[in-house]
Amino acid sequence: MASSKQLQLNANQHISKYSKSKADDKDIYLSIIEVIMYLKNRFASEVGEKGDEKKYYISFTKTLSIDFMLKMIKSKSKRTEYYHHYNERTIKPEGGFILLRSNHDPDFCRILLISELKRQGTNDQRLQEGKKKQAKGNAIERLGKNLIGIRAMMMHEKITPFICFGWGCDFNHEDTYIDSKLFMMNEFYQINTIYVFKKDGGSDYNYFAPVSMFFREERWTIKEMYEYMKEIAETAFRYYTQ
């Protein structure tokens, strides 16, 4: 897992690699670097580098294993039944995971931010080229798979610090097919709204866990993603430390 300092030092190397891949991956990665630096500056009295005198440090990882996710659930001592046959498998959202770690407790690990960036929709280009439309929904299906695991992992926390940015012609909000999928995926809460804390629950019944999902036709900029992500990550930091 990389620290924010390592991320910053290696940024050019990663940019070079991503230039051969999707520009979206590079953009969300650069946004993440900015979020980590913001958190370190905002909470400088508590957050430092790994191994120094500060109470916390921040790390980043692209993947989490099912084993890690199960350990997160087990740490709350509320569930007794588990299935362990796929512990080495991982989830890998495009934006990865920002983690809060302790310099004094090696077992302390909390998730500050999980982020995804999905592009969906080539039918506008296909129609210009005289080709037939393709079926919609592939990126959304992958998002749903990850979200199921993330919600299970965060079940016993009062927050779900997850955000997904989606863009492309399938998200023009003119076709209700995609919007209806997103609406159900977000437990019938709104999209294009920030949700961090769970809602509408209490000690006698389960909370709902809406997440922050922003979808539009235009591509997201680094600055736009940063502004949303830093709000969620800062909220999560305060939740865990206050």
From TrEMBL:
Q: From the UniProt record, which GO molecular function terms apply?
A: DNA binding; magnesium ion binding; type II site-specific deoxyribonuclease activity
Give the SUPFAM superfamilies listed for this entry: Restriction endonuclease-like
Looking at the record's lineage, which domain of life comes first? Bacteria
- InterPro entries assigned: Restrct_endonuc-II-like, Restrct_endonuc_II_EcoRI, Restrct_endonuc_II_EcoRI/MunI
One of the GO BP terms on file = DNA restriction-modification system
Name of the featured protein: Type II restriction enzyme, EcoRI family
Organism of provenance = Spiroplasma syrphidicola EA-1
Lineage of the species this protein comes from: Bacteria, Bacillati, Mycoplasmatota, Mollicutes, Entomoplasmatales
